[in-house]
Amino acid sequence: METASQLPFGEVLRDRLGPPAHPSVLESSPRSRVWRIGLSGRPAVLKQLVEGPGADERYAREVAALRIAGRASGSPIVPALLGTDPAERVLVLEHLDHRPPAADWTVGWAAALARLHSTAGPGDTGALPRWQGPTGADVSSFLALAETLGVPGTPDARDELHALVERLDRAEGTALLHGDPCPGNDLHTPDGVRFIDFEQASLGSGLMELAYLRVGFPTCWCVTRAAPALLERAEAAYRAAWHAETGTALPDTGLADACAGWLIRGDALVERARRGGTDHLARVPHEDWTWGTATARQRLAHRLGVVAGTSAGHGDLRFLGALAADLRRAVLDRWPTVRPVPERRP
């Protein structure tokens, strides 16, 4: 356990905030070190991104996202950024009290997410990278999986998938995307939901993260599925909050595309440290693995069902929807012990 004098809290921060006191280590990912500290008798959070590939970029993303989100009107949606030390990749943040989420937590989460998304605009172009969607390689991996499971994709489905990748690549929007707006990165405070950990933040269409409610939080250890009535309430809360903040209605189209995009990404079956360089969809026929609240096959079966449903009546995804339905049946026939993903977060 570090003493206050051993913390990465240099003169730049001391001159602005005063000396830290009473440090205690908080749980964090392997990519960061986090402490609860005292500053002038009040609690704060000290976070340092550890040395490693992409550390400087992740730090820059988090600082930029917090500053943009700090412009939110009304109640805050992120902790206040009290100080930074770029040379040490250190942030000092307001400490927030978290309480157990309510059973219908996704409603408040969705409204807060819409407010977060609305804080960025065209003037923020270049402050963060653009959101990156699936690629042609993801299409090939998904079709190879379908072939392996005895449900080969038709030429029409293949064409739809490639067109999907192109649409997602040019999807309009300058929303501030969190990058991982999952249970654990949302703090349920007495004043509402606030988000933390913006190391993967980007700019793009908010629909890419609104889709998390349907596809089961694809970048997260904590997969959940919302009951239909609760899902309807949460999506309505997002749309209402978006309209209240921007004065514009959320487009009626694009959510089905976003769900399909998450389906075909094999990297959405594993934690962040294992993403990139491995075809995880190709592993599914030969092995199943548990990440958080669900296994890879559970995640896949859930997303296939979502895409089969959201694609119904969607002309651009008609053949993909049929393929998803057939592939889900094949998954459940081959592995009858695959259970639905949980409804409740731990």
Keywords:
single chain; 346 residues; alpha+beta; 5-stranded antiparallel sheet; two-stranded antiparallel ribbon; 15% strand
Quick summary:
The chain is an alpha+beta fold. Helices cover 39% and strands 15% of the residues.
Q: What does this entry look like structurally?
A:
The structure is a single chain. This protein is an alpha+beta fold. Helix content is 39%, strand content 15%. It contains twelve helices and eleven strands. The strands form four sheets. The protein has a five-stranded antiparallel sheet with strand order 1-2-3-5-4, sandwiched between helices. Helix 5 packs across helix 12 and helix 9 runs antiparallel to helix 11. It is globular and about 65 Å long.
Identify the strand order in the major beta sheet.
1-2-3-5-4
Mean pLDDT across every amino acid position: 95
Provide the β-strand percentage band. 5-15%
Q: Assign an overall shape.
A: globular
Number of helices: 12
Chart the SSEs and their pairings:
Elements: H1 11-17, E1 20-26, E2 32-39, E3 42-49, H2 55-69, E4 81-85, E5 90-94, H3 105-118, H4 136-148, H5 155-169, E6 175-177, E7 186-189, E8 192-195, E9 202-204, H6 207-210, H7 212-215, H8 228-246, H9 255-263, H10 280-283, E10 290-291, E11 294-295, H11 296-310, H12 318-334
Antiparallel strand pairs: 1-2, 2-3, 3-5, 4-5, 6-9, 7-8, 10-11
